[in-house]
């Protein structure tokens, strides 16, 4: 139970739910090109790989372990503080770089100006004091000697033998060196195998990519051929429909015009649009000329009758006046 609690306290992971994005049927070539530059690392340097003895990992420590959420919160606060400080430094106005041939100098901006000089003005002032006698040096404190003096003589080879004692140290150093060399050789061999595996994987991926592109091109050609056939079938059906509509319209027009043409011709003939040329010539030329001649003759006769009536009226009036003048007056 304690081991489970330790595992849950040392490793925690939580992720918010998110919708799955719509993935395309085939891989994008741009993404494949970008993935070519991915560098594969060695798992021996990966921090997630456990090394050493794994029995002591879940032992409870005497000191209380920090809460991972609190530690993440502190790291987030520290990161935000660094970002705010960096933003303030970026927003702070700085003096632009001087142009060529000039340089920046320090300028006073205080209310009262002071003269800036390289050497500070100095003045020496002396005073005379009475002479004092020198104090003697304080004697060195030597504590009183206690105990008894004892001497020990160590002969050569009594403490340790260098040739014998150095063997374990040399064995450890040589063993560590050989072990490190073997680890480096194994790492180089593993890196070589990883590079070979990576090259084989890239070749296989390139072959699969070529095959996928070929299948995509084949699918595209089939889709275009299908769309072209569907378009041709639609055009054929459209033309067939237009032909049927034209035939139906022609039959309807023929049936509708079968009785319309005689009726139109009769109506036009009744309205005078279809006429006899001789009759039309007589009506438009001969009859107007005849009517004009008759009118002219009648006008002449009318004028002659008017003149004759006027002459008769004048003669009658003159005779009447002459008759009235020649008649005697009646007696009163």
| Biggest sheet record | none
- Give the N-to-C terminal Cα separation: 183 Å
Helix content class: 55-70%
Tell me, rounded to a whole number, the average pLDDT: 79
Report Rg: 68 Å
Order of helices and strands: HHHHH
How many β-strand runs? Answer: 0
Category from helices, strands and their pairing: mainly alpha
Count of DSSP H/I helices = 5
Proportion of strand residues = under 5%
List key phrases describing it.
332 residues; mainly alpha; 5 helices; 0% strand
List the helices and strands and how they pair.
Layout: H1 2-10, H2 29-35, H3 68-91, H4 162-270, H5 277-326
Walk me through this protein's architecture.
The chain has 332 residues and is mainly α. The chain has a domain at 277-321. Helices cover 60% and strands 0% of the residues. The chain starts with a helix and ends in a 6-residue tail after the last helix.
Please summarize what this structure is.
The protein has 332 residues and is mainly alpha-helical. The protein has 5 helices and no strands.
């Amino acid at each position: 139970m304690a081991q489970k609690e330790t595992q849950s306290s040392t490793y925690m992971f939580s992720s918010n739910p998110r919708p799955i994005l719509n993935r395309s049927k085939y891989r994008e070539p741009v993404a494949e090109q970008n993935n070519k530059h991915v560098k594969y690392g060695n798992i021996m340097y990966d921090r997630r790989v456990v090394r050493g003895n794994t029995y002591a990992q879940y032992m409870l420590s005497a000191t209380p372990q920090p809460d991972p959420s609190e530690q993440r919160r502190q790291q987030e606060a520290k990161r935000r503080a660094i970002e705010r400080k960096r933003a303030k430094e970026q927003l702070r106005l700085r003096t632009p770089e001087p142009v060529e041939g000039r340089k920046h100098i320090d300028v006073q901006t205080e209310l009262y100006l002071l003269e800036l000089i390289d050497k500070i003005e100095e003045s020496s002032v002396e005073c005379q004091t009475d002479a004092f006698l020198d104090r003697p040096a304080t004697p060195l404190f030597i504590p009183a000697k206690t105990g008894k003096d004892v001497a020990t003589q160590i002969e050569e080879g009594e403490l340790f033998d260098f040739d014998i004692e150095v063997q374990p140290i040399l064995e450890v150093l040589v063993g560590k060196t050989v072990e490190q060399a073997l680890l480096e050789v194994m790492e180089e061999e593993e890196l070589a195998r990883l590079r070979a595996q990576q090259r084989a994987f890239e070749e296989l991926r390139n072959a699969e990519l070529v095959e996928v592109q070929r299948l995509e091109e084949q699918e595209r050609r089939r889709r275009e051929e299908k769309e072209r056939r569907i378009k041709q079938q639609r055009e054929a059906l459209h033309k067939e429909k237009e032909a049927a509509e034209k035939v139906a319209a022609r039959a309807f027009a023929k049936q509708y015009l079968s009785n319309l043409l005689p009726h139109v011709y009769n109506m036009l003939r009744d309205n005078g649009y279809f006429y006899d040329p001789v009759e039309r010539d007589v009506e438009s030329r001969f009859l107007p000329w005849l009517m004009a001649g008759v009118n002219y003759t009648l006008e002449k006769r009318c004028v002659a009758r008017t003149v004759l009536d006027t002459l008769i009226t004048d003669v009658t009036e003159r005779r009447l006046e002459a008759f009235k003048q020649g008649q005697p007056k009646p007696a009163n």
